[in-house]
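TASK: fixed-backbone design
INPUT:
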C-alpha cells in the first residue's frame, strides 16, 4: 500500500485563514490523509491544539508575521478605519500591501527549506499573495480564497475591497485609484517574482489562480453570478468551511434575560478597546445577553455591565450557533459561520474584505451594515434589538443554513484536494523561468 498523502497547509498569519484551514484539515484527516501546517511566528500551538503537526518558519523569516507586528501596524491606522474604502486606498491599503510583500520576501528561503523537508503531495495556500517557493515545489498547489469572493475579479463582481455593487457608477474611479495605490508594492513584488523565476502578474494582482485547484469560500446564498465561466474542475465553490470545535456552555449572567448576542471583531480588531468599551456601555440597558471577544485585552475593561460577558477567546462556531445575532467586522470566516448557522449579521467593517461583506449582507438580506464609529447609542441599541428579534430574517436564514449543512464545504474541499493530489504526475517545476542562483537577493524595499 502507498503511504497516505501529506497535505501541507500554509495559511496567512490571521485566525480567519488559519481556522478555515483547520476545518479542511480535520476532514482530510478523517479521510486518511496527513495534514501538516507551516506556521508563522505567533501561531505556534494554534494547529497543534487540534492535533496537527506544525513546522515553524525560521524566526528571521517571520518578524513581520507575528500577531504583535500586525497589532502594532493596526494601531497606527485606527483613525483610517473610519474612512471610506476609497479613502483607505492610499492611507491603509497601500501600506498593507507593502507589509504583505515584505512577508513574502522574508519567508521565501525558510519556506523553500521546509517544503523540501516535508515533501508534501500537495500544498494548500490560504493567503492574498503568492510565495514563489510554493510554485516551484514541484507538486500541485491549491489556492484558497477565504476572503470575500471579490478577491477573484470578474465584470459582474464588485471591485475587491470597495464595498460597492458591481454596477456602481463609482466602480471605474475606485479601480483606477486601487491600481495607483498599489503600484509601488506591486512593482516591487513583480521584481521579486522575476528574481525567483516566476512570471509577472498583471497590475493590481498579487496572487494568480492555481493551475491545479482553487477553493472559494462563497456560499450560494451570497454568491455572485459571474460573467466569465470558471471551469468546475479547477474552481470549486464551498458552502462554508466550519471546523469541529469544542462546545461552549453559556454561563448564567447576573442579568440573564433576553437573546444571546455575540460580538467579535477578530483578534486584531480587539485592539480597538475604546470602540468596544463604548459599545459595551450602550448594551448595558438592553434586554439581551452579550458575549464579547476582547482578545488579549481583558485588563482594559474595568466596568462591565451585568448583562455582558467578556472573554479572551470563544469556540466561535459553538457560540454563533447559539446566538440570535452576530456583530462582527465582516471577516469572511465570521460572516460564513453566521450564514452556516442561520444567524443574521450586524457588520461594522474597518478595512479589507469587511467592506465587501458588509455590502453583500445588505444586498442578500442576511444582515445590516453600520459604520464602525459614526452611530449614536440609541441607533446602535435599536439596530441590535431589531435584528436579534426579527423572526422573518431568522426563518429565511434557517433555510440557507440547511442548504449549507447539506453540502459541507470541508468535505467538498477535502475531496477536491485529495483528487488533485492523486492526479499529480511526476514532480515538476511550475511557471518558472531560469530560477536564480541560491542566495540572490530580491528587490530592495522602496522608500
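OUTPUT:
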Amino acid at each position: 500500500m502507498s503511504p497516505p498523502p501529506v497535505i501541507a497547509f500554509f495559511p496567512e498569519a490571521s485566525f480567519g485563514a488559519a481556522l478555515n484551514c483547520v476545518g479542511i484539515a480535520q476532514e482530510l484527516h478523517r479521510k486518511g490523509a496527513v495534514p501538516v501546517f507551516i506556521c508563522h511566528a505567533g501561531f505556534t500551538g494554534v494547529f497543534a491544539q487540534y492535533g496537527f503537526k506544525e513546522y515553524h518558519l525560521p524566526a528571521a523569516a517571520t518578524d513581520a508575521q507575528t500577531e504583535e507586528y500586525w497589532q502594532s501596524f493596526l494601531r497606527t491606522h485606527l483613525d483610517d478605519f473610519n474612512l471610506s474604502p476609497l479613502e483607505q486606498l492610499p492611507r491603509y491599503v497601500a501600506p498593507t500591501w507593502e507589509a504583505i510583500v515584505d512577508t513574502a520576501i522574508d519567508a521565501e528561503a525558510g519556506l523553500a527549506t521546509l517544503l523540501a523537508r516535508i515533501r508534501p503531495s500537495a500544498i494548500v495556500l490560504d493567503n492574498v499573495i503568492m510565495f514563489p517557493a510554493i510554485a516551484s515545489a514541484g507538486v500541485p498547489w491549491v489556492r484558497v480564497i477565504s476572503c470575500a469572493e471579490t478577491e477573484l475579479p470578474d465584470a459582474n463582481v464588485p471591485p475587491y475591497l470597495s464595498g460597492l455593487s458591481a454596477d456602481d457608477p463609482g466602480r471605474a474611479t475606485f479601480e483606477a485609484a486601487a491600481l495607483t495605490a498599489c503600484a509601488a508594492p506591486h512593482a516591487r513584488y513583480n521584481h521579486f517574482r522575476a528574481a525567483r523565476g516566476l512570471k509577472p502578474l498583471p497590475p493590481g494582482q498579487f496572487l494568480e489562480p492555481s493551475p491545479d485547484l482553487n477553493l472559494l469560500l462563497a456560499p450560494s446564498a451570497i454568491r455572485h453570478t459571474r460573467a466569465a465561466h470558471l471551469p468546475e474542475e479547477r474552481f470549486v465553490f464551498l458552502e462554508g468551511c466550519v471546523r469541529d470545535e469544542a462546545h461552549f456552555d453559556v454561563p448564567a449572567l447576573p442579568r440573564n434575560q433576553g437573546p444571546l448576542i455575540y460580538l467579535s471583531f477578530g483578534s486584531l480588531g480587539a485592539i480597538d478597546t475604546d470602540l468596544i468599551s463604548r459599545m459595551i456601555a450602550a448594551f448595558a440597558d438592553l434586554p439581551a445577553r452579550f458575549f464579547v471577544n476582547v482578545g488579549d485585552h481583558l485588563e482594559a475593561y474595568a466596568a462591565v455591565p451585568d448583562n455582558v460577558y467578556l472573554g479572551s477567546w470563544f469556540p466561535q462556531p459553538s457560540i454563533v450557533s447559539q446566538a440570535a445575532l452576530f456583530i462582527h467586522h465582516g471577516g469572511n470566516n465570521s460572516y460564513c459561520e453566521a450564514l452556516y448557522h442561520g444567524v443574521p449579521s450586524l457588520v461594522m467593517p474597518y478595512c479589507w474584505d469587511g467592506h465587501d461583506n458588509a455590502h453583500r449582507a445588505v444586498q442578500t438580506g442576511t444582515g445590516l451594515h453600520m459604520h464602525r464609529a459614526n452611530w449614536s447609542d440609541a441607533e446602535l441599541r435599536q439596530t441590535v434589538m431589531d435584528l436579534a428579534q426579527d423572526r422573518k430574517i431568522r426563518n429565511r436564514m434557517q433555510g440557507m443554513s440547511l442548504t449549507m449543512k447539506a453540502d459541507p464545504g470541508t468535505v467538498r474541499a477535502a475531496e477536491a484536494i485529495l483528487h488533485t493530489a492523486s492526479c499529480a504526475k511526476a514532480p515538476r517545476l511550475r511557471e518558472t523561468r531560469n530560477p536564480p542562483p541560491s542566495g540572490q537577493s530580491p528587490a530592495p524595499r522602496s522608500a
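COMMENT: Residues 426-447 have pLDDT under 50 and may be disordered.
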